Amino acid sequence: MSRLAALALVACVLGLAAPRAQAGDVATVRVSATVLGVCKIVSVDDIRFGDLDPSRPVDVEAQGAVRLQCTRGVDYRLSVDSGQGFDAAAGRRRMRAGEAFLPYTLAAEAFSGIGTGFRVPIELPLAATLRGDDYRDLPADTYTDTIRVLLEP
């Protein structure tokens, strides 16, 4: 092989082995998620005073509860309305049976706090009291009221 042919062969081999110019690009991809600030009432326990003996009237306490869960770090407020039997003129809560009423009080009507997440519910007590003198002369019946609880994040 001639010297010229050998140089041409080396040039071809080197030309094939040489890196070719390439045009590339780089981009970024964002990954995101939004955790919402959510509050939910998980369960409630009714307030039950049980059987009341008007021949031996005593003040009676009963307790219910509201269990809630909120996103960790979210402020919440739980409020209790006045109930269906509320006496606006006297400013008091009442249970009703027909035309008869039995007044009661709640120890607290509003709660607030900070959510702890959705693993363990937060339990808020609803403590209620009724006075013995208030049922001493009432007709025998089952007295009821319905109150609503409102949970706001």
Structure description:
Helices cover 12% and strands 39% of the residues. The chain has 153 residues and is mainly beta. It has one domain (39-152): Fimbrial-type adhesion domain (Immunoglobulin-like, Sandwich), CATH 2.60.40. The strands form 2 sheets. A 5-stranded antiparallel sheet has the order 1-2-7-5-4. It is rod-shaped, with a radius of gyration of 37 Å. Keywords: Capsid protein, Signal, Virion. This is Spore coat protein U domain-containing protein.
- CATH architectural name: Sandwich
Task: Output the structural class.
Answer: mainly beta
Distance between the termini: 89 Å
CATH class: Mainly Beta
The geometry reads as rod-shaped
Radius of gyration: 37 Å
Strand percentage lies at 35-45%
* Mean pLDDT figure: 90
Low-confidence stretches: none
- The total count of helices amounts to 2
* Number of E-state strands: 8
CATH topology: the name is: Immunoglobulin-like
Spatial order of the strands forming the largest sheet: 1-2-7-5-4
* Main pleated sheet: 5 strands, antiparallel
State the fourth-level CATH superfamily: Fimbrial-type adhesion domain
In sequence order, what are the helices and strands, one letter per element? HEEEEEEEHE
Helix content range of the residues, please? 10-25%
Number of domains: 1
Keywords: Capsid protein, Signal, Virion
Pfam family, one: SCPU
Protein name: Spore coat protein U domain-containing protein
